[in-house]
């Protein structure tokens, strides 16, 4: 399941990155909007964009894409953090929708899309942990409730594997 979720995280990050680039170009250079404009925002890939939200999307989208390309355990932490931030931002922006505090120019559709992207990226982070093959074998035996007498050979869990798992 890990490769599937890693690809989904990559596509989610690519969507956010593309939205940010197109939104920034359309809102800043074409329309000359203020950084935190709330009215007259252009529609980009189904969402409204102001320059501040577009720039933030570029940074977060690039971070998710780079994490998905690097892989290993780095993408796990990037996806967990970015997914949680997306979820939190979508909930907070629902509170600020029709107020002056809506500095990112969110609409209801943006909140819904942010929540969906947050769930996808966060779930990819949950599936992103990589361990050693010895630890995977030991966990597989434990999962299938293989009794100690039926095991042909006990898996060897080295001290370095335990330390590596603690780092993650």
From TrEMBL:
The chain crosses the membrane at residues 51-70, 77-97, 103-127. Keywords: Membrane, Transmembrane, Transmembrane helix. This is DUF4383 domain-containing protein. It comes from the Bacteria. Pfam families: DUF4383.
């Amino acid at each position: 399941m890990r490769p599937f979720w890693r690809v989904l995280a990559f596509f989610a990050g690519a969507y956010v990155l593309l939205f940010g680039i197109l939104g920034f170009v359309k809102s800043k250079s074409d329309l000359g909007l203020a950084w935190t404009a709330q009215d007259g925002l252009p529609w980009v890939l189904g969402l409204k964009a102001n320059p501040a939200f577009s720039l933030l999307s570029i940074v977060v989208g690039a971070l998710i894409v780079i994490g998905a390309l690097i892989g290993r355990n780095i993408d796990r932490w990037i996806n967990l953090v970015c997914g949680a931030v997306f979820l939190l931002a979508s909930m907070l922006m629902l509170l600020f929708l029709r107020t002056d505090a809506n500095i990112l120019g969110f609409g209801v559709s943006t909140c819904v899309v942010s929540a969906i992207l947050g769930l996808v990226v966060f779930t990819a982070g949950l599936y992103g942990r990589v361990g050693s093959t010895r630890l995977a074998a030991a966990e597989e035996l434990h999962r299938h409730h293989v009794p100690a007498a039926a095991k042909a050979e006990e898996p060897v869990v080295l001290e370095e594997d335990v330390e590596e798992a603690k780092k993650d």
